[in-house]
């Protein structure tokens, strides 16, 4: 019986997986890229040709205005009115004012040193030189020596804050704004999700009114109205009031961004943390926030860029930031008619800084991909 | 009927536990005694309150009336009691719930470091030891998303082993797994069952229940319908509801 069974039973077929083959040649390499990105359809090809034509018409005149026919050095008389080249000599002449405002020339090394330190740290971050923890600590600690360097005191002569201006002021407002508003925003977001009704109401009561008014309103309130409410004898200078206004405004927006990230954390993560006996703050700091913040990196970077550009609104309360200095400089009677160059220069600097932040944000996202958080 | 007499060997004791979600009565007058080292499998249709029951035991869900005692400590709202109980009771979840931003090693060493304040080096060597027990030590530096479901669930079990808890709750540990991975997780659980660990496992793996469980509990509509040894319950169910359920899944 068993013999009969073994004769009729068939040997199982052996499954042999097919070998993996390389993809067709047309879909890879330079030609594959061109096909996929520029000429994937007739419409696509048409748009590509039109874009090339536009560049052909626009780039040469731009090049000749900005570089070929441009005047780079000299006084106001070297730029002929109505010339078809840019007058960068104007920007060069006003460079110090654009960078640091009316900061006294004898003390100019101080903001210069601060700027070099800031650029060095930014480059180190961009190129990931040194350990991430040290860089983060430096970013958190840097504003204090920077402030001391620019403001003076403790051995350095004090420079009145009404003399601060230009790009230095813009970056200072943005840097302090980002550094302070992110932690405040995180606390507000956590508070808004709190089980304790009073804390929740308080946070909503802070976030929603601030989000409901334009930044200009807040700046006016800080600059003009706040002094009316302060007790006699207590005086906060205009710059600090404006800075606090910017921080509160930004914090309310940061809070909503962070809240979005908190909502993306699955309930199971809280269960897992609770079930090992982790308390609220450890759960929040070690489990929830690292994930939540990584989810919202693009939006947080977006907020930082927006904040940096929003600092240009301080001109309406009498502070001359980078853009304000551009505007003031272009009204110099000796250099009339060259405001285009100043604005182009201003736009270029804004763009370099904002694009830098944007690229840095992208690189953080790639880091997140490596952690596998995205395909979790 | 469930045994309601507690003695010195009782580690988990539920008396008259009721719970509502809003107006929905999920747990109805639950009485349950679990002895040290006992291995219990809870089965029942979805919505019968199985998961809610074991989530009440470590305080992830709060019961409204009745009493739950774990190793003599009564479960109350006080954070101190909750911490005392959670230190002894570990839980494995259906969806693993590993921390996606930490490596496998960090996941497993996490609780000893941050809850029990163990030095980092000691916690990591202990973590490697337990990862080896679930045969996953060579994946220690990967992130959870790079592992298969079965591997992730074994990591989740190693995470519990590191806490040295003597009571383990399993909430449908194999329900989210591909068929080919169920066995590797069950094998680990069977090995655990051989030790002096009290296990309560919500599962529909009846083969597992047969080989491992001292007692199988069948729940429906928020009640414990019947509770018996696997042989008795599977072969001679007393209630028609149990018969019907078993005929669907066996």
Q: Brief description of this entry?
A:
Chain A is mainly alpha-helical and 376 residues long. Chain A has helices spanning 2-8, 29-37, 42-68, 88-100, 109-127, 132-141, 143-151, 166-192, 197-211, 215-229, 238-263, 267-275, 280-295, 297-310, 322-329, 339-370.
Explain this structure to me?
The complex is a heterodimer of chains A (376) and B (250). Chain A is mostly helical and 376 residues long. Chain A has a domain at 88-103 and 159-371: MetI-like (MetI-like fold, Orthogonal Bundle). Chain A contains 16 helices and no strands. Chain A is flat, with a radius of gyration of 29 Å. The two termini of chain A are 55 Å apart. In chain A, 28% of the residues are buried. The model of chain A has no long low-confidence stretch (mean pLDDT 88). With 250 residues, chain B is an alpha/beta fold. Chain B contains 9 helices and 10 strands. In chain B, the strands form 2 sheets. Chain B has a 6-stranded mixed sheet, sandwiched between helices. A 4-stranded antiparallel sheet of chain B has the order 2-1-4-5, with helices on one face. The relative contact order of chain B is 0.17. The model of chain B has no long low-confidence stretch (mean pLDDT 90). Chains A and B meet through helix 12 and helix 13 of A and helix 2, strand 6 and helix 3 of B.
Structural class estimated from helices and strands of chain B: alpha/beta
Summarize the helix and strand pattern of chain B as letters: EEEHEEHEHHHEHEHEEHH
Look at the helices and sheets of chain A and give the structural class. mainly alpha
What percentage of amino acids of chain A are in beta strands? under 5%
Helical residue percent of chain A?
55-70%
Major sheet details of chain B: 6 strands, mixed
CATH C-level category of one domain in chain A: Mainly Alpha
């Amino acid at each position: 019986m068993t013999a009969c069974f073994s004769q009729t039973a068939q040997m199982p077929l052996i499954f042999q997986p097919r070998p993996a083959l390389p993809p067709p040649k047309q879909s890879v390499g330079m030609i594959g890229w061109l096909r996929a990105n520029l000429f994937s359809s007739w419409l696509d090809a048409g748009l590509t040709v039109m874009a090339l034509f536009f560049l052909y018409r626009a780039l040469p005149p731009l090049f000749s205005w900005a570089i070929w026919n441009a005047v780079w050095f000299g006084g106001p008389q070297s730029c002929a009115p109505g010339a078809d080249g840019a007058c960068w000599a104007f920007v060069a002449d006003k460079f110090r004012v654009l960078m640091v405002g009316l900061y006294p020339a004898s003390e100019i090394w101080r903001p210069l040193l601060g700027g070099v330190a800031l650029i060095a740290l930014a480059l180190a971050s961009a190129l990931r030189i040194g350990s991430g923890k040290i860089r983060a600590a430096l970013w958190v600690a840097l504003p204090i020596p920077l402030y001391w360097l620019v403001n003076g005191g403790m051995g350095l002569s004090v420079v009145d804050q009404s003399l601060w201006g230009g790009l230095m002021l813009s970056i200072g407002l943005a840097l302090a704004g980002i550094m302070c508003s992110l932690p405040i925003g995180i606390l507000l977001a956590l508070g808004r999700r709190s089980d304790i009704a009073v804390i929740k109401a308080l946070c909503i009561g802070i976030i929603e009114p601030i989000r409901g008014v334009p930044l200009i309103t807040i700046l006016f309130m800080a600059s003009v109205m706040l002094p009316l409410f302060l007790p006699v004898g207590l005086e906060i200078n205009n710059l600090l009031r404006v800075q606090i206004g910017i921080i509160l405004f930004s914090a309310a927006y940061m809070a909503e961004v962070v809240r979005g990230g908190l909502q993306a954390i699955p309930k199971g993560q809280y269960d897992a943390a609770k079930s090992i006996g982790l308390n609220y703050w450890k759960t929040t700091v070690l489990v929830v926030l690292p994930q939540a913040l990584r989810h919202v990196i693009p939006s947080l970077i977006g907020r930082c860029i927006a904040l940096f550009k929003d600092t240009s609104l301080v001109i309406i309360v009498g502070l001359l930031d980078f853009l304000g200095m551009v505007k003031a400089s272009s009204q110099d009677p000796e250099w009339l008619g060259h405001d285009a160059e100043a604005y182009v220069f201003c736009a270029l600097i804004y763009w370099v800084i904002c694009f830098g932040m944007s690229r840095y944000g992208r690189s953080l996202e790639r880091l997140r991909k490596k952690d596998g958080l995205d395909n979790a | 009927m469930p045994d309601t007499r507690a003695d010195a060997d009782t580690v988990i004791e539920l008396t008259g536990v009721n719970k509502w979600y809003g107006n929905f009565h999920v747990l109805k007058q639950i009485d349950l005694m679990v002895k040290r080292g006992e291995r219990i499998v809870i089965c029942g249709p979805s919505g019968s309150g199985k998961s809610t029951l074991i989530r009440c035991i470590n305080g992830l869900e709060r019961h409204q009336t009745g009493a739950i005692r774990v190793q003599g400590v009564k479960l109350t709202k006080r954070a101190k009691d909750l911490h005392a109980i959670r230190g002894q009771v570990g839980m494995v979840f259906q969806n693993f719930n590993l921390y996606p931003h930490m490596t496998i090693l960090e996941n497993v060493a996490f609780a000893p470091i941050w809850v029990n304040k163990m030095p980092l080096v000691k916690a990591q060597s202990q973590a490697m030891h337990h990862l080896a027990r679930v045969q996953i030590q060579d994946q220690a530096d990967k992130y959870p998303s790079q592992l298969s479901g079965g591997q992730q669930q074994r990591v989740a079990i190693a995470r519990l082993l590191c806490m040295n808890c003597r009571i383990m709750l399993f909430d449908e540990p194999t329900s989210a797994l591909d068929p080919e991975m169920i066995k590797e997780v069950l094998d680990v659980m069977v090995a655990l069952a051989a030790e002096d660990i009290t296990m309560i496992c919500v599962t529909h793996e009846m083969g597992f229940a047969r080989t491992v469980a001292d007692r199988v509990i069948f729940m429906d509509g928020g009640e414990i319908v019947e509770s018996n040894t696997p042989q008795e319950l599977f072969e001679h169910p007393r209630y028609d509801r149990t018969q019907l359920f078993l005929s669907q899944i066996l």
